[in-house]
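Weekly puzzle thread! Below is a chain. First person to post its structure in C-alpha cell form gets bragging rights.
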Amino acid sequence: MAKEFFGTDGIRGVPGTPPLDDATLYATGRSLGAYLKREHGAAHVLIGMDTRESGPHIASLLAGGLAQVGATVAFAGVITTPGVACLVRQNDFQAGVVISASHNPFQDNGVKLFSHAGMKFPDTVEEELELDILKHRGEAVAKNLSRLAADESLDAEYLAFLRKRFIPGAKLADFRIVLDCANGAAYKLGPELFRSLGADVVAMGVSPDGRNINAGCGSLHLEGLQKRVVAEKARLWRKRRGLVWHSMVMRTARSSSVKREKL
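Winning reply:
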C-alpha cells in the first residue's frame, strides 16, 4: 500500500499542520509504543531533536502518546541523528525518534523513527504504523503534557563514543579547523569533540535561537565557511579545510572556490 505519512526520510511537514498536527503526532507515539510492546514485550524509546523551536512541543506529544500505552521515554535533548542511532544500538532502547528536518529551514520539521538496530524501520512496519495512526488520530490528545527534561548523560555518552573512534595515538594539535555547525544539532558536540582531540577550533553557527538553523550557514551556504577558512588560515591534512556539521552528517568543504592565498 502507498504510505500517506512516511516518506524516504520519515514524516515531514510544517508543525501544526498534517501530518505534524498535534493529533497525528500523539497517535504516532501511541502507535509506535503499541507496536514495540507487541513485538518486543517492552517499549523503551529514546527521543532526540535538533534546535528548531517546534522540537520541544513535538517531543512532548510523542512522549505523551508513548506513555498512553505504557511505553517509557528517555530524552536526549539536542543531539544529532547519528547520535540517536548510535545510542539506540548501544543501550536497551527498542526504538529511537529524531525530531529534525535536516538542512531545511526552521519552519519545517520531521519525525524519523529508528529500530533497535539504529536503522529506519522496514516499509512493512511503517505501513503497519500508519494504519494504527489513522485509526487513533481522531482521539483526544492528553492535556497538560509536560515539557521533557534532557538527560545530559546521553550526550556525554555519545561524545565518549566518538572520541574512542579516533585513530589511537593520533593528535589534532597544531591544526586549526573551522566548524560551521549551522546552528543545528551539533552546535555543542562538534566544537567540544574536536577541541578534546587537541584541535584549535574556530566555531561558526553555534548560537541557535530556534529559528536560525541553516539560515545563511550550513551545507547549503558554504560561502561564509570558505571565507573564514582563508581568514583564519585554517589547516587540516595540509589542505585548507572547513567542516560543515548539521544534524545528519559532517561534510568537509574545500576552500578551493575562493581565492587561493598563500598561507
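Puzzle host: Confirmed. Bonus trivia for everyone else. The radius of gyration is 20 Å.
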